[in-house]
Write a structure and sequence with these properties.
Layout (H helix, E strand, L loop, with lengths): L1 E2 L8 E2 L1 H12 L13 E4 L2 E4 L5 E5 L7 E2 L10 H13 L2 H6 L3 E5 L4 H15 L6 H11 L1
Parallel strand pairs: 6-7
Antiparallel strand pairs: 1-2, 3-4, 4-5, 5-7
Helix pairs in contact: 2-4, 2-5
Length: 144
């Protein structure tokens, strides 16, 4: 047992307990969906999620919001489109609308929940949106 100088002023520490505390602090944390930190990657003006490059936002002149790569899914059923509509309804931000007349969403693989989450993350970062966790959650819920 180790202790503090000065007797009973601070008590004694069990040296093994310190090792256990340090091991607990350094142990890998379980991954939860909310703890995942997405990292945006930019190459040649193409924006994508570094860990999941199945969704990118690329420069392209568009008349309206455009998604390419999942033509078999009707636009109104697409969770990315629903996320865009929920984001526009919440923010009423014409800058977002303008951004998506100069960019399109390009998919190499569509997974409804993951694709809409990645789209929301990229749009938030690219358009410098300040949204609370509850606002982000309400957008996600509206898209599903």
């Amino acid at each position: 047992m180790g202790g503090f100088e000065g007797g009973d002023e601070g008590g004694f520490w069990d040296e093994d307990a310190i090792d256990v505390l340090i091991a607990k602090q350094n142990a890998p944390k379980p991954k939860s969906h909310q703890q995942t930190k997405l990292i945006m990657e930019t190459r040649n003006s193409i924006y994508s999620i570094k860990e999941d490059p199945t969704l990118s936002i690329v420069p392209h002149e568009c008349e309206t919001f455009t998604i390419e790569g999942c033509d078999e899914i009707p636009l109104e059923s697409n969770t990315i489109y629903k996320t865009y509509k929920a984001l526009m309804a919440l923010t009423c931000d014409s800058d977002i609308e303008d951004f998506f007349t100069e960019h399109k969403v390009l998919l190499t693989h569509y997974t409804p929940t993951t694709s809409s989450t990645n789209f929301l993350f990229l749009t938030k970062e690219l358009c410098n949106l300040i949204l609370s966790d509850s606002e982000l959650q309400s957008i996600k819920e509206a898209a599903l």
